[in-house]
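User: Can you write out an input/output pair for a complex, sequences first and structure second?

Assistant: Here is one pair. Inputs:
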Amino acid sequence: MIKADNLSKIYSNGSVETVALSNISFEVEEGEFVAIMGPSGSGKSTLMHIIGALDTPTSGAYVLDGKEVGKLSDDELAGIRNKKIGFVFQAYNLLPRTTALKNVMLPMVYAGIPKEERVERAKKLLEMVGLGNRITHTSNQLSGGQQQRVAIARSLAMSPAIILADEPTGNLATVQGEEIMAIFQELGEQRHTVVVITHEPNIAEHAQRIIYLQDGAIIEDSTNHGRRRAKRGGE
Amino acid sequence: MELSEVMATAFEALTLNKMRTVLATLGIVIGIGAVIALVSLGQASQLAVQSQIQSLGSNLLTVIPGAQTSGGVRGAEGGAASLTLDDAKAIMTSPQVTTVANVSPELSRRAQVVAGGNNTNTQVLGSTPAYTMVRELSIASGRFITQQDVDGMDKVAVLGPQVVSDLFGDGANPIGQSVRIKGMSFRVVGVTESKGGSGFMNRDDIVFVPLSTAQKLLFGVNYLSSISIAAKSEQAMDQARNEVGYLLLARHKLSDPTQADFTIFSQEDILGAASQVTGTFTTLLSGIAMISLLVGGIGIMNIMLVTVIERTREIGLRKSLGARKRDIITQFLAESIILTVVGGVLGMVLGIMLSYVVSILIGLPFTLSLTSVFLAIGVSGGIGIIFGLYPAQKAAKLSPIEALRFE
């Protein structure tokens, strides 16, 4: 599903060169639930940008769902982000004063999916994340946990190859964070590929596999034997 | 991204900050309003001038003497003494001229006219009874110059209403009173009806005297300053112009028409000149109004730039969800076009109301040209594109990573 081969990213600011990633290689299989961990400055954001087709590596190859992403044009990258990747951000990033339904429909708008189909699919996805009764609520009328669940529904809108979550519980209380991780675990069981970027060990513990980054390099890549099951409770 | 979605998104974005939207639109409203108001007022005054000139007679031809040439120096047009009373008589009687209904020989000079303690400088016009028919002039009270007046070289005068009010006061009846022109006393026998007009077109500021009196007693000349000719119909104008022209060339013993010592022109010719003048004014005023439109456009650009910065995060999000550059450009262009077109339509309404009120206040006919309406909408849409393109491109160029990080 994902194949990173010798990825490097170097930012040059005038004469100063900063190495954000150096020679990173790993693979993620379909249906895997992977956490990428590391302290701030370890390069995990940069890696996330590359995996998310928001940025391209300086060198090395990145293959997503059989497609080499590294050398695509801006518009082609936009197409990849639309169809292959579902983003979940720390700050939810819903459109303000816009209903949950419209937020979930947004990626489908850019894909040119007809309106009736958009509405139908978005409703199903919102029901799946437990917000079937909140579809006309605007984002500012929803709690943080609810907003993040709308964001997850949105990330699933185009049935992407991978779901890429960047500190998805960072703005949430522990209970709500558990909720979100439970949803990700369910998605994994449904053969969705999930990549979570986090610096919190108790969040990473929900994943099947944990990749540790430090100073732009992988220092450990191991199966998580003490995997925690998150409980999906009520509201 | 389909159009309905683009429009809906743009409207939503614009309603989020209503005050700003209204203020940004106001610049366009004022600009388009000014252009429409000035253009339609310009056209109205053009129409007014046209109808005024036409009221002087649509089948009227005027012959004026050509420039006087003395010692190789060509003087002003109309300065020569080449037209005579015999020319006028020949036009009326010649068998070659078949399309002329009436001929009015005229001698016009400016002179000081005095009545009691008042005096005015006005046009003194020596004329014959044919003048009323050729110029479609009506008499308000008393009578016009008669053939007996001309034959007897009588010292009688017919006054225009402007001269009556200048010399005798508003609404006074001057008939039977006397006025002095160049020291000679004239008995007032009639007052003409007002024909309106202003400036050089003022047909009310005039004193009529018999042609013979003007030529021999007042100004001591034997030529005419103009011959006015009424053609039998409007269709016969061109033929009448040719007939009169060839007759006068023959009478003046000239074989080459380019050497003619006279000029024949119709009201149509004056109309053309007058239209050109008002047209120039209209263009000038609209030009000034265009500047305010330009300022309005810059206002739109400014607002759109602020909007782009404010919505940096939203742009980043949209890009991360798959918006291409052209999706972002379309979205922001749609907003600026909606702003300007709505402003254009409101400005159009404002401009129409304004020109309606003003044309009623100053007594002009109210006209509304569809061209200016369509132009206003087209121009405002164009302004939306021109001034919206730069902010939209700026938005589209934002890197999604930078945009998502933006606080």
